Amino acid sequence: MSAGAARKRKDPKGIGQRDAASMWERVRSRLRAELGEDVFSSWFARVDLEGMDAGVVRLSVPTVFLKGWIKSHYGERLLALWQQEDKEVRRVDLARRSALRIVADEPKPAAGRPAPKPVSDGSGERFAGSPLDPRLTFATYCEGRSNDVACRAARAVAGAPEGSPPAYNPLYIHAGVGLGKSHLLQAIAHEAQAQDPNRRALYLTVERFTVQFVSALKERSALDFKERLRSIDVLLIDDMQFLTGKHVQQEFCHMLNALLDSGKQVVVAADRPPAELEGVDERVRSRMKGGVVVGIGAPDLAMRRRILESRLQAACQRNPGLYIPDMVLDYVAQVVTTNGRDLDGALNRLVCRAEFSDSPMTMEVAEMAIADLVGVREPRRIRIEDIQKVVASHYNVSKHDLLSARRTRAIVRPRQIAMYLAKTMTPRSFPEIGKRFGGRDHTTVLHAVRKVEELAAGDETLAQEIELLKRLIQD
Predict the structure, then answer these.
(1) Residue 17 banded pLDDT, cuts 50, 70, 90
(2) Which CATH entry fits the domain spanning 3-104: 3.40.50.1970, 3.30.300.180, 3.10.20.340, 3.20.20.140?
(3) In terms of CB atoms within 10 Å, which end of the chain has fewer, N or C?
């Protein structure tokens, strides 16, 4: 049937296609007023009226997803608006247009309005995810007590068998700055794609999501943008705390619900728990709280030391001649306690000094290099108990051993060093120090001090070790 014949065709109720088109325009106007321009453009800009026969309104949409979404979320409202136009309407049918139909009936741009740009299929740069850093994998992620739960959950998500329902959905990871949440998200993306190249994993910061969504609205390609995101198998959203804007949050909530309801895996990272995301829509927060929420704490001393060692190994691969003493790494791990990013910064400074300076890397050089990361601290009163604790930990002996009568070499040397430090770092007398070391005679303390001074004078390694202990005690 020709287009002209279709326009002249009448339905059994006597309503012509021109009358139906007028009704559809009025329905569209009411929808636009109720939903707002952004939401209306997102869902109804490409809904076409196909016909109206025997009380049935036939509409068409370009995608299966759009058909299901409008039917489930706006179906009843559409019917009510059509019944306001014609009480005989009893049903609104939605169908997906064929590719041929879309090409043939693509609407022309209104006068004075530029034609829309060609729509991407989702694989183009406009709808691409945020860049992945090839270094941020599980292999380079340092695990410890502060992040073990988050890391195990991330590995489970990345290694989920094809077709299996998500075990943790959504997985919500929260941590302060520099504690590794973005590293984990990118590691999931790398691992998921490595295990199954057909598995579509997308890492996306909230900022990039916002920019792409607003751009898609301006270019009248919002539907393609939504189709792209809803086709993802694993969606990784970073920096959730920056999600702002009513319409952007609305669209994010729709996308989140669609992915979760269809069994797709969602992982979200933010700098605070979901309940503390001020300014984020309550529906989004509620969906996040309904998933698995895990936190990452600050790294402990052992983990900080491992982070430094792994970063140094990577630096040594680039420069095999690089050398930073273990005692310097011990010092940095002890005094830089904030986060992994500050540890990276501290090591980068040490590497730079070691590569471009003719002077050897000593404790003094290291202390100067990272002074601003440590901060200015008021000198505090040193107690003998503090000295005993640090020395015992450093030499892997117990405080009880230091105070005991045991005379094995593994105990005697740390005990002598602790006595030496007690004399040089506190105002205590020899008898007082002897009393605090298991009731020893003052001559024993005097012998220990002289012995350590003599050994340190001829042993540079021991001298640096003592300097390290002093800094650890002061910190």
Answers:
(1) low
(2) 3.30.300.180
(3) N
